[in-house]
């Protein structure tokens, strides 16, 4: 599994790692020459479980909310890419079946790699990220008809030779086969709705956890076997079963039970694919593989960029959308594997196509790096992603769950704010309430300048992106030294980064709510409310004091769990807080006074610790 770990650390995802592991162990186990049939059939259950989980995750409300981009943007992307690649393949001399299969593969993108990268970079909720998610969701749906089309493209003879024929239907007339297939599908729907749910409910009531897991696996395997018996793809049947159980009260438990097996079997499936790659093919065709990979990226960019512009996903968001989806995806391996079994492709064609997909996945981090370059070019050219904001004395960067509360408090006290957020739908919703808000990335210097940074009195950085938050604070402090900055920190270490960047008041996003929850817990255990308030104030005071004392112990080059000095300091703070709690048992009047008197700003959470500037009146953790 070393290859998987290295691949994940390099940002390539686990799929590339599994394929690399298969390439390494393939010659040792002689998978490509003999003994792989049973291994392949076993590993294909990973695909069945993947589609079962996709079916479970279908939320009609989410699909309806994304219907415009899902059907319009996603549908046009799949059709346009599929048509272009099919036409190019036919012109190059491939059969129409082979060209169409290559079109299926090229029309898909890597759901696992793209979503993971977008989430890590904090871009999933951006306009480009949401558009990409909608297209990926449509692509997952599109896999179903693609899987159904491959046997039709191959023909009956090929299907039989591939071992997917159904002995049950061989001696039946066509109308009887159709009726039997429909009956099997109806049975899956009815049994999933009215038979499996009572059984799951009984198992849950008896608290038989291991039996629940076994029952979940049995449902998936039974559906796959039933669909195979009537000549339907097991993956299609599993997808249907997942959709039926999507609204079950046991949905999340089913997901948790099946997910580990899906991961293991999918890993085995991708290792099997890697084991079948002939390294001689890579050596002899590396130029063709590289050219095909770049050509696929170019074709997808040529399709995605105009569609992004058509659906108003423009400027930097459009580049994020196009570059993020420009590779082929893991479902392509499934389609190629089935196409090889159906004798649509030769062994060499399959190996080359698998290497093209793998190469595209490896290049995905470079594609996201190109997105950052596109942002820089866009900023230098001074192109705004939307209308330029008016100048204001209070600027709020980010208006999610955190920023909304801050904004409402300021508005309720008669202040006017200017809001910057990169989610167009959020901006539109806020504008309906009469709040001045503008679409754009607040880390862009030109956007902050247009919002009136030079004359603003207050900047609230409420975004949940650590790096971008520090960039915004640094830029604001450089261009307006007198501005007051309130910043949202992810944790204690992020607090130190924001202090160094120049923030005046820093709020650890979960600190206040966690202290409040701890107070409620103490009160529920019988402690008097006044005593609870006293203890909460002591805890906050001592934690903040310890936060300041630990600042010199932070080493940017070492993780906190690997820094023994930092760990020792943290333990010392814990002992100090515990001693303070035990020692503050004073008179009832003192408890009342300290418990309910409003604290001064300097006492509230933290003092500023930036040694390079004059300490502010107070800073919140």
Number of distinct beta strands: 6
- Runs with pLDDT <50, length 5+? 156-165, 382-390, 584-621
What's the total helix number?
29
> What percentage of the residues does DSSP assign to strands (E)?
under 5%
Overall mean pLDDT stands at 77
The percent range for helix content is 55-70%
Structural class of the helix and strand makeup? mainly alpha
Determine the CATH topology of the largest domain: Na+/H+ antiporter like fold
Architecture per CATH nomenclature, i.e. the level-2 architecture of the largest domain: Up-down Bundle
Measured distance between first and last alpha carbons: 40 Å
The total domain count is 2
Question: What would the keywords be for this entry?
Answer:
6 strands; Na+/H+ antiporter like fold; 68% helix; 2 domains; 621 residues; mainly alpha; Rossmann fold; six-stranded parallel beta sheet
Explain this structure:
- By secondary structure, the chain is mostly helical.
- It has helices at residues 2-9, 13-29, 37-43, 45-56, 60-65, 67-91, 96-107, 111-120, 127-154, 156-161, 174-205, 209-229, 234-244, 251-275, 279-310, 315-324, 331-341, 347-362, 364-380, 401-412, 424-432, 445-450, 466-479, 492-501, 511-524, 529-549, 564-583, 588-596, 601-604; strands at residues 394-397, 418-421, 437-439, 458-461, 484-489, 505-508.
- A six-stranded parallel sheet has the order 3-2-1-4-5-6, sandwiched between helices.
- α24 (492-501) links the parallel β5 and β6 (505-508).
- The two termini are 40 Å apart.
- The model is unreliable at 156-165, 382-390 and 584-621 (pLDDT under 50).
């Amino acid at each position: 599994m070393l290859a998987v770990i290295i691949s994940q650390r390099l940002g390539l995802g686990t799929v590339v790692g599994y394929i690399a592991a298969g390439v390494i162990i393939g010659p040792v186990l002689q998978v490509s020459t003999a003994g792989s049939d049973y291994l392949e059939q076993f590993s294909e259950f990973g695909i069945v479980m993947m589609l079962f989980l996709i079916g479970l995750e279908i939320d009609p409300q989410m699909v309806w909310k994304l219907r415009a981009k899902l059907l319009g943007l996603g549908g046009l992307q799949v059709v346009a890419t599929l048509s272009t690649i099919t036409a190019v393949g036919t012109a190059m001399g491939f059969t129409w079946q082979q060209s169409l299969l290559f079109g299926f593969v090229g029309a898909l993108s890597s759901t696992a790699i793209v979503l993971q990268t977008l989430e890590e970079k904090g871009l999933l909720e951006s306009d480009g990220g949401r558009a990409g998610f909608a297209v990926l969701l449509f692509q997952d749906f599109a896999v179903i008809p693609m899987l159904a089309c491959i046997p039709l493209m191959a023909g009956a003879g090929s299907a039989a030779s591939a071992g997917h024929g159904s002995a049950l239907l061989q001696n039946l007339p066509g109308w009887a086969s159709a009726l039997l297939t429909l009956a099997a599908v109806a049975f899956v729907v009815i049994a999933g709705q009215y038979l499996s749910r009572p059984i799951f409910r009984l198992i849950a009531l008896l608290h038989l956890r291991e039996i629940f897991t076994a029952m979940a696996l049995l449902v998936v395997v039974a559906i796959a076997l039933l669909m195979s018996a009537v000549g339907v793809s097991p993956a299609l049947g599993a997808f249907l079963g997942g959709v039926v159980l999507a609204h079950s009260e046991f949905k999340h438990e089913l997901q948790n039970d099946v997910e580990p097996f899906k991961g293991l079997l999918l890993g085995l499936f991708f290792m099997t694919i890697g084991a079948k790659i002939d390294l001689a093919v890579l050596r002899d065709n590396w130029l063709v593989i590289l050219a095909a990979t770049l050509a696929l990226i170019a074709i997808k960019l040529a399709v995605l960029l105009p569609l992004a512009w058509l659906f108003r996903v423009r400027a930097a968001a459009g580049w994020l959308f196009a570059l993020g989806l420009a590779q082929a995806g893991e479902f392509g391996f499934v389609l190629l594997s089935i196409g090889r079994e159906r004798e649509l492709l030769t062994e060499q064609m399959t190996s080359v196509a698998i290497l093209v997909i793998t190469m595209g996945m490896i290049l995905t981090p470079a594609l996201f790096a190109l997105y950052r370059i596109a942002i820089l070019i866009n900023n230098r050219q001074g192109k705004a992603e939307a209308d330029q904001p008016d100048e204001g004395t209070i600027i709020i960067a980010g208006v999610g769950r955190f920023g909304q509360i801050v904004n409402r408090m300021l508005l309720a006290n008669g202040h006017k704010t200017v809001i910057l957020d990169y989610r167009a739908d959020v901006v539109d919703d806020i504008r309906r309430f009469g709040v001045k808000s503008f679409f754009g990335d607040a880390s862009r210097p030109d956007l902050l300048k247009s919002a009136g940074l030079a004359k603003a009195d207050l900047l609230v950085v409420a975004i949940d992106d650590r790096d971008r938050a520090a960039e915004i604070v640094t830029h604001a402090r450089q261009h307006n030294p007198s501005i007051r900055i309130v910043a949202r920190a992810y944790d204690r270490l992020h607090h130190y980064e924001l202090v160094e960047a120049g923030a005046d008041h820093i709020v650890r996003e979960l600190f206040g709510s966690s202290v409040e929850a701890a107070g409620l817990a103490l009160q529920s255990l019988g402690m008097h409310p006044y005593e609870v308030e006293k203890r909460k104030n002591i805890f906050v005071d001592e934690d903040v004091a310890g936060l300041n004392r630990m600042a010199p112990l932070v080493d940017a080059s070492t993780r906190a769990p690997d820094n023994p000095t930092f760990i020792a300091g943290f333990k010392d703070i814990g002992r100090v807080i515990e001693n303070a709690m035990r020692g503050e048992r004073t008179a009832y009047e003192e408890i009342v006074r300290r418990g309910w008197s409003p604290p001064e700003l300097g006492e509230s959470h933290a003092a500023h610790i930036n040694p390079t500037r004059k300490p502010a009146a107070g800073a919140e953790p």
